[in-house]
Amino acid sequence: MKNLLVPTDYSANAFNAYVYALGIASKIGADVTAVHTFELPVIDPRAPSRTAQAIVENEKEEQVYLRNKELPKMTQKAAEMGLKDQPKDLLVLEGEIVEQICHVAAKIGIDLLVMGTKGASGLKEVFFGSNAAKMLEQATCPILAVPENAVFNGINKVAYFTNFDDADVKTLEQLLTITQPFSPDLYLVHIIEADDQHPGALSNLKSLGEVLKTMTNQPIHLEVSKSDNLHTGMLQFAKEHHMDMIAMLSHKRGFFEKLFNPSSTQKTVQHTDMPMLSFRKI
């Protein structure tokens, strides 16, 4: 785990995700790269070429100005946390946000993508709707979604929610590369929804726990919990057990929107401040 990538739109939430990434990097000895994307304004094809060129140049100059304004803040924060020469870079790229983020992640060998769940511009759309599905489909590395009020205080308790997928073992291996330096308690959790009957749930959980024991010396806890639905169950469990991070295999479109922005029917579970680590099924 050597390279972390933090997309930024220069919003407070994106900066908070960057700070969270610095917290992880300080413990595991990783580099943090930030990336900002932008799209050129749509220009009326009837506009004079000189006018069109001026608009493009102005936009690019604005992007240089914004980068030069943000980078010292990021460098200063890293120094305050005892990290030198961070971020490694603040890239500014023209193009569609999800496409550019995934391209950079693949090109420079990113091990973990750390990003805020809200933002002032494009980032607020990344974890919702089609962009969420697109990101999960295209990203070649795990994605850590950091809510706007999340505060990095180490990683002492991590819950991995499982539905006994055949990819769980490989996913847990990836999870350990991120969490092992923090030596947290690991919770393997299965949520039973509504009136579903899963007589083999505890047995399956014990089997997965035995495999995990061969991979780490970290304390392991097995939990089966009942809830009306997966989203509510995850958030309730994480809140009641004071988790620092929740993790699972990526889910279908709309999953993150429901998780980070509970509907009116889920008001018993408050908006989560816990980061969510999502793994693409290998």
Task: Describe the protein.
The protein has 282 residues and is of the alpha/beta class. It folds into two domains: 144 residues, Rossmann fold; 123 residues, Rossmann fold. It is built from nine helices and ten strands. It has a ten-stranded mixed beta sheet, sandwiched between helices. The longest helix has 32 residues. The two termini are 18 Å apart.
CATH fold field value of the largest domain: Rossmann fold
**Class based on secondary structure composition and strand pairing:** alpha/beta
Q: What is the name of the CATH superfamily of the largest domain? A: HUPs
* CATH class term of the largest domain: Alpha Beta
The helicity comes to 40-55%
Order of helices and strands: EHEHEHEHHEEHEHEHEHE
Order of strands side by side in the largest beta sheet?
Answer: 3-2-1-4-5-10-9-6-7-8
User: Averaged pLDDT, please?
Assistant: 84
Distance from N terminus to C terminus (CA atoms, Å) equals 18 Å
